Amino acid sequence: MLKEEWQPLLTAKSYEEAAMLVKSQLNACQYRRSDLKNRTKYSFKCNEYRKYPLCSYEIQIIAADDDPTFVTVMSRNIHQHQQYERNSTTRLPSPIRKTVSKYVHCGLSQSQIKLSLIQDHPHSPIHETKLINLINYERRKNRREIFSVFDLKSWCDQHKDNTQLHSTFVPFYIVEHIDNIFILFTTKQLFRQIKLTSFFQIDAT
Ligand SMILES: [Zn+2]
Questions:
Q1: Per residue in 60-84, pLDDT tens?
Q2: What separation in Å is there between the alpha carbon of 47 and the centre of ligand 1?
Q3: Ligand 1 center to residue 53 CA distance, Å?
Q4: pLDDT band at 7, cuts 50/70/90?
């Protein structure tokens, strides 16, 4: 979009006063400070630039070095916050989010959800990673009791040194992340019997 000319907006008695006005009234945030030859320039942009990356609103606060009580504020362009100017990379469109939420609550699998979405929204391209993230998010949303890798690790620690013969005993484990988990479950009783037997059976899951 074409950049407009800088328009004088107001004057202030100090940089602090001007900055406070700009932040609270004009919805802008500072991103740069430039020390120029005889003045300091503070550059501001839209405070919601992540949400509306196409918003080209800009503010400049200029403080003269020889008179720091004379501060001018200038603006360029206006805020543009229409829906289509939203950052489309952040999330799937809301009708799709609603459908995914519904299917997750019905207990559909990931591939079933994907197939149903293609039928329900044939004209919307569906970003695979975003869909997986959304499904995971929806599945966890109402399940605070979900077991994390950290919980699993703590559980293994608690069972590392079990004195009871017939209780679960974890002599060795690796719990790094969801794709790197190895836990050896056994009981001390079973361990004792190893030396008495000539067969050894291992069960893996
Ligand atoms: Zn804006």
A1: 999 999 998 999 999 999 998 876 5
A2: 6
A3: 8
A4: very high
CA 27 to ligand 1 center in whole angstroms: 7
- Cα of 164 vs centre of ligand 1, distance in Å, is 65
Domain boundaries, the chain: 7-84, 94-141, 149-194
Ligand 1 mean position, distance from CA 17 (Å): 21
pLDDT of residue 41: 96
State which CATH number among 1.10.287, 1.20.1740, 2.60.40, 2.20.25 fits the domain covering 7-84.
2.20.25
Quick one: DSSP state of residue 133?
A: H
Distance from Cα 40 to the centre of ligand 1, integer Å: 24
What is the whole-number distance in angstroms between the Cα of residue 79 and the centre of ligand 1? Answer: 4
Nearest to 55 by CA among 41, 64, 45, 70: 45
CA-based nearest residue to 159, from 168, 149, 151, 146: 168
ipTM above 0.95, yes or no: yes
CA distances from 203 to 63, 93, 157, 185 (A): 74, 45, 21, 10
Q: How far is the CA of 4 from the centre of ligand 1 (A)?
A: 15
Q: What is the mean pLDDT of residues 8-34?
A: 95
